[in-house]
Amino acid sequence: MINEQFFSSLPDSYSVKVEEAKSLLLSDSWEVVDLSSYAEDRLGNPIIGEDGLPVYVSAKVNIKEIYEGMPTEFELSVKLDLLNQYKHNDGCIQAKQSSFKTKIHHYKVIKLTMQRAGLRYLKEINYETLKRFCDEMLKPNNDLRSQGSNSYKYGIIAHASFVKVISTLGNMTVNSTIHGLIDYPSIQVVPEECIVLVKDSVSEYVEYNTWLESGTHGTMPLEVAIVILSEALEYFEKPELKRILALVAAVSKLSHYKNITETDALRAALTSFIEGRYGRDKNGFFNWVTRSRAGMARPIKMRRSNNVSDLACIYFDLCDEYEVDFQFEKPLESIDDLSLRVRHAFYRVSASLSALTGVRWSELASLKNDAFEFSSTRGKFKSKIKKTNNNSETYRPVTIHAQPIAWISNGLSQQSAIHGDDTVAPWLLKATLPWQKQPVAINGLSWHDTGENKSMGGFYRELLSELISDYDSEGIPISSHRFRHTWAELAIRRFDGNVPEAIRNYFRHWYGSFMTMDYIREKIKADLPEINRSYMRELVHRIAKNEHEFFGPAARYMLSLVQDIDVLDPTQVDELLNQFEMIKVHEHSYCMIPKQYKSQAKCWDKDTKTPIYGDACWNNCGGCMGRFTLGNDGSAHKDAIMRVGMTAQEMINTNKSQGLDNLNGYWKNQLKRAEAALRELSVQTEIDDGTNEGSV
């Protein structure tokens, strides 16, 4: 444990670093302030502090877990290394909480790995102990997995996570002097060398090349994604959901129509309706009640005008509007039962929107009631991208099938007269129930049906277990963010068109509890090569017709091939495409490297003699021969490249302000390639038919 006495024993060379942040070095809990995000009230308005300025989002983060049980020298070095990566002022760390917690996780992996390898000090990591350290890091770690980490796949740490942790360790040696560390590895730990060291150990769990291609999130298996999407789309067409929407709206309308401002009165009317047996005939609405006449009990139709009958009248009219009968398939038991059904439907909404948009959790949380806009054929939504766009609101395309889901979300959240002048929270995934006083009765991002705070991954796993009898929940990790990878693999129009419509039509009936995973997997994977090939053919024709703009080395190469073809018949197109190995989809570009240039790929692996396509990142892809970028006409590639450049510029400015410009080589390279790609996007690429002078 670090204390004042320990500081006095340090060499003079460390005194400046220590004095700069002594309060943080003495503490096990750090205040993290996100200068890119303002704290908001329930209405989405910035919270104003005593100084009259907006308050930034902040939180206390316990960092004790990254050094607990280790020597004081280890603790001090880890804290100094961490502090030198972030700005800190007045005892606060300036960082995005998610990024900071990810960094904390890397140090925790280092600590736990050292403990399992029998190492107490970082300086004990040398050439003799490095392989043992790497093997221990690779193995399953229940201490990490139990905390919901997504960093494990195939039962071992994912390749991308392995590289990030090893890089953190290697940087401690590189920066030992400038960061003032007293405990750091005795050797320079290099990720590429460590990957080779664990090859045999990896092979015990999964094929080595498969592990190399997998990232931290990876892609959700195609059949699983299709089951979820197909089931979700059909759920939103079910009559039972329409009845729930009708009853929620009816309670809201009744409260305003009769000016019912007391919660008890409104709940009493709803309870009587649920417990009653209401119907209608040619004479109007009635309630079946039991009466005794002449010693015999028999049902009679009771007609009376009160809050309950008015609620029934509104509900029946709404059922007519929604074209559904009013009788619930499973009768409601109580208001609590109705609330649980609304919560379940609301969580279906958030889970489905995460699947259709592929956005991160933080983006889902930022969606407001008016986030989605739709035309007759296309849609878009506005969200805050905290990770890559400095928390600014950004519009992005979405399938037209998200329209009824967004409408349902707004329909499930209804204000009533009991809320008075209070304004309902504007969040799309936070619901106000008309029979409950609190403004936010349901958070669609946290499912509490059983008193347990379930994640979306938990919801997906339960759903799939119901639909597929042999679903392996342990072998197939699920998270909402995996969808952004999955749609790119399944339908390569992810950044070029309205894909989910085709998915729905093509795979609509390919699921059910009576099918096995193997059957579904074989059916879908058999079609994938043709899906890819078909899209590549379409790209050729679009280039030939100058229908769209295309950029990047691979696009220019394809353009040169198309110019040499007089007539684009199917045979010639296929011969042209045979020069390309495949098409891989990434957010910032497609990967379509010609076969003859495959060895020039930035992700080329000398050992396996093949590109590691799973290593896709802008630092590799931005300067690669295989980059094929869609133009400015509606694709998401340009926006993605702009976000890469913005992030790189932000990191360069941050490091420079802290006197760490020597760490900016990577980020300057990122920025340079992003700027070059954006300049290229400003020049239209066309086929030269002899009339376009100066065309590229």
Radius of gyration: 30 Å
Q: What is the subunit arrangement here?
A: single chain
User: What's the tally of helices?
Assistant: 29
- What structural class do helix, strand and pairing data support? alpha+beta
Percent of residues in helices: 40-55%
Average pLDDT figure: 76
The biggest sheet amounts to: 4 strands, mixed
Shape: globular
Any descriptors?
696 residues; alpha+beta; 4-stranded mixed β-sheet; 4-stranded antiparallel β-sheet; 12% strand; globular; disordered C terminus; Integrase-like_cat_sf; DNA recombination
What is the fold's blueprint, element by element?
Layout: H1 4-8, H2 15-20, H3 22-26, E1 29-38, E2 56-62, H4 72-83, E3 87-89, E4 92-94, H5 97-116, H6 130-138, H7 142-145, E5 152-153, E6 156-157, H8 159-174, H9 176-179, H10 191-197, H11 199-203, H12 208-213, H13 222-235, H14 239-257, H15 263-275, E7 278-281, E8 284-293, E9 296-302, H16 307-321, H17 335-357, H18 361-366, E10 372-374, E11 379-384, E12 393-398, H19 402-412, E13 430-431, E14 442-443, H20 456-467, H21 482-490, H22 499-507, H23 517-525, H24 528-544, E15 550-551, H25 553-563, H26 570-577, E16 584-585, E17 590-591, E18 604-605, E19 610-611, H27 618-621, E20 627-630, H28 637-657, H29 665-681
Parallel strand pairs: 1-4
Antiparallel strand pairs: 1-2, 3-4, 5-6, 7-8, 8-9, 10-11, 11-12, 13-14, 15-20, 16-17, 17-20, 18-19
Helix pairs in contact: 5-6, 5-8, 8-10, 13-17, 14-16, 15-16, 17-19, 28-29
